[in-house]
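Shipment paperwork, digital attachment
Item: protein structure file
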Amino acid sequence: MKASRLFAILFIVAGTAIAWAVLGSALSIRTARTGIDLSGAVSGNWGGPMRQMHPEIFYISGTAVNARRQIQPESSDVKVHLVSKPKNKGLLLFRTYEVDFSADYVVKNTTPITQTIYISFKFPAKEAKYKSFSFVLGEKQTNKAPKDGGITDAVILKPGEEMPVKLTYKAAGLNEWIYSFGKNHSRVRNFKMEMTTDFTDIDFPVGTESTTTSRTKKEQGWLLNWDYSDVIGASAVGMAMPAVTNPGPVAARMTFFAPVSLLFFFSVIVILGAVKNVDLHPMNYFFLAAGCFAFQLLFSYLVDLIPAYVAFGISAIVSLLLVNTYLARVAGSRFARISLLAQFAYMVLFSASFFFDGLTGITITIGAIVTLAILMAYTAKVDWNEVFKRAPKVVKEPQGPQPPKLTI
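Attachment content:
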């Protein structure tokens, strides 16, 4: 193994790294453009993050400095069912969901005189579509039209009189659903919420409180309960949709990282080739690098057409076949089997770790240590002076049957 060949191999690695950098940058630009182009469309079809406000109940008092006097519901019984339905749009996967909301409140006139009580509900997201919407005061279904993102209706209650109020709807949203008490409800009494999910990966958004009473894991999801008997400064209640793997960013990270995988792969091929007296020509390394580059190239353009894991599997198989069938013809099947294991470990497994947040670093570390241990054990008895002095073995592609020579 001559030093000039090592420099030629490093030059090939550097050139391939530049190609990967260009591909990764193109992926990042495509992903950003996809987010800009599709975010409006997704919000239009599914709505944005939903924040359901606690009802605002009040009466008008002409003697008060602030004429509007807030009333707290006597009791609140809220039921929410969340169904995660992520939508794949190009290089991005949006955390969309459907919500089935039902709330029963009891409103009471706590003043000593008959009052006109106003009940106002704000919609959790202005751009969302609401199905099966119902707003019932006592036995009367309100026919009020929405105004300023909400609906307000009024009833007349005698002193101490109570009236049930029911609100129901079905809608779709994005990322998270939150029930907030707002600034007007510094003290919350007799509030209960029951939330069911069809997913097990639960996460409470920032600023919301975890369950206060019980959690029951179901076959597909959770049954969660909150109970505020009398709480001052009650925190909001909510749920974030399960994390999803966005194909575009994952593909870009894989592509930017690929030169490290190639460096590991070529290190194994060079060292074992030197030990076994198989000194590949730099042009052989050029084609090997091209076969490895095909992995990320094919994945980057398949991932916005088919599911990410399917695209990853197809791209990995294509690259493994390209590299190792070529190497089998050049250096023989035994050496190709070693190459197959090395490429699978460094190109495929390392890249697969990007699908799992937080595992990439430890995967690379373990892979590097295991590789070092294997190479140290395998080459411990090797006389490197002899390896670098001997003439390289000429590797020739196997020749098929030769056609007969024509004589005239």
